[in-house]
Amino acid sequence: MKKESKMWRDNLRGIFYIALKDIKTYYFKPPAVSWGIVFPITWILAFYLRNPGSFEELVPGLIAMTILFSTTAAEAVVINFELRLGSLERLLLAPIGLSAVLFGKVLGGVVFGFAMTTVVTIGSTIVLGLQPNFVYLILIIIPSLLVFSSLGALLCVLVKEVFEAQTLLNLPRFLMIFLSGVVYPVSKMPAALQYLSYALPLTYTVEGLRFSFSGVAGRIVLSYTLILIGFLLLFILPAVKLLGKKFE
Amino acid sequence: MGKDMIIRVSDLTKRYGEILAVDHISFEVEKGEVFGFLGPNGAGKTTTIRMLTGPSKPTDGKASILGFDINSQIVQIKKHIGVVPEISNLYDDLSGFDNLLFMAQLYGVPRTQRRKRAEELLKTFRLYERKDSRFRTFSRGMKRALTIAAALIHNPEVIFLDEPTVGLDVVAARSLRNLISNLRRQGVTIFLTTHYLEEADLLCDRVAILVKGRILAIDTPQALKDKTNKKSLEEAFMEITGLEPEVLAIEKGK
User: Fold this and answer.
1) Partners of residue A86 in chain B, C-beta under 8 Å
2) What is the C-alpha to C-alpha distance for residues A61 and A46, in angstroms, rounded to an integer?
């Protein structure tokens, strides 16, 4: 029992310091900030200028895009970059588990994503005078950050080269932007596309955020949180497995 | 009275599909010994180190370090060992000091000792003046030195050095050999792979000769020379491995 708790402590320490090192080394640098926050804002503004209407309705989509792009901005390249340099193997020599190494990488993306999302959420709330339910917001934003950071990690371990990871990641990114209700409501899509839409995690982020801003349907928000946790497991478990195989 | 064996390896095997990279090797390393693992490229030296230190799992066989099993207790093993991989794989964008500090954090060196330990090692390896420079700006020798310093951050009882002097100039290589001798005097057990047979002759108490994943001989360098009736370990190595005809063929090809 004591040995187990010691191992947990070692792993948690490893996760924390790997995330801290990644944040210091890769995040909060122009390319990551550009992908993480500038791109979503520009995209949403471009859409708004094309179809001027209520900007408030676009805020959930803007936050969701910020979550998606900021978590995956550096995440998608960090793992392969370190694999190539051999520094990821260096981490495996430390007294922590393989999963702790991957969770550390994921946490780095989550922390950066959280910072970017907080700026966008608070900024748009203040500027537009919105009154979201902050508990609901957290129930959607935190699992979403974990989901998309894990998705970045999974796609990264699926490929060999750094550029392949970025290219591969753009497929689900843009698919989700168009099909998850970021700029066009899911309810107005053809039935077949709606089914596809609910197979994508970003849909639950966008819809959950919409409910958070309207402040109603707490049960639905909670159910979306659980669905997002399901996606998290769906991405993170194979990512750990695949990362292990890379070292065989 | 049995000797205090720190590393025990029995029938250790690694297979990649059809390729048998390490073929049922067995050996033991005594406490405080410098044990050399010699062999040509592709012999299985690095694969063996990777199995013993965690990144790779054996296909078959058993091994233990300090009594901990490599299959089930690898995390405990990692706390007591230091590993210097073949490539200097620290973080380019972190300074020399920050790289060591990060390793101290990962290995759970107590918070109050981390900075002191990192500074001590930077001084030992004569890198203190460059402690705030990024790793990417270091020369190859300095990178190697910092990589070794990183492996020593938690005062390990066993050190694995994979080709430690490859790419180093004469001065840096000599300085590293002195360091290995110092570590040995401190009672640290050293597992070393090298291509440089003179280096192995100079440093190692015993050597194992590995070819195509199999150990062909294990003994002291002197005993191997005596057995083969050769003057140098290099000649003994060529005799044992049967690689001499290949060398002659290459020479004839010229």
Assistant:
1) 85, 87, 89
2) 13
Q: Which residues of chain A have pLDDT under 50?
A: none
Do B210 and B216 touch, CB atoms closer than 8 A? yes
> For residue B67, what are its two tokens?
């009594």
Residue B2: what pLDDT? 56
Task: Please give the pLDDT value at position B9.
Answer: 97
Question: Does B83 sit within 8 Å of A95, measured CB to CB?
Answer: no
For the stretch A200-224, what's the b/e string if a residue is b when 16 or more beta carbons lie within 10 angstroms of its beta carbon? bbbbbbbbbbbbbbeeebeeebeeb
- Is B85 at the interface with chain A, CB within 8 A? yes
Q: How far apart are CA A138 and CA A63, in angstroms?
A: 12
Q: Which residues contact A85 (CB under 8 A, 6 or more apart)?
A: B89, B92
Q: Give the model's pLDDT for residue B88.
A: 86
Global ipTM: 0.84
The DSSP-derived string for B2-49 is ---EEEEEEEEEEEETTEEEEEEEEEEEETT-EEEEE--TTSSHHHHH
Helix ranges (H only) for A26-180 are 30-33, 39-50, 59-85, 87-92, 98-128, 134-158, 162-179
A95 and B108: CB-CB below 8 Å? yes
- Of the candidates A17, A210, A7, A184, the one whose C-alpha atom is nearest the C-alpha of residue B153 is A17
The SS3 call for residue B150 is helix
Query: Which residue is closest to B80 within chain A, CA to CA?
Result: A95
The amino acid sitting at B127 is: L
The CA distance from B161 to A59, in Å, is 55
Q: What is the pLDDT of residue B1?
A: 47
B61 sits in the region (left: phi over 0; alpha: psi -120 to 50; else beta) called: left
> What ranges in chain B are assigned the alpha helix state H?
45-53, 74-80, 96-106, 111-124, 140-151, 170-185, 197-203, 221-228, 233-241, 244-253
* B136, B92 contact by CB (below 8 A): yes
pLDDT tens by residue, A124-175 = 899 888 888 899 999 999 999 999 999 999 998 888 887 888 888 888 888 9
Residues in chain B with pLDDT < 50? 1
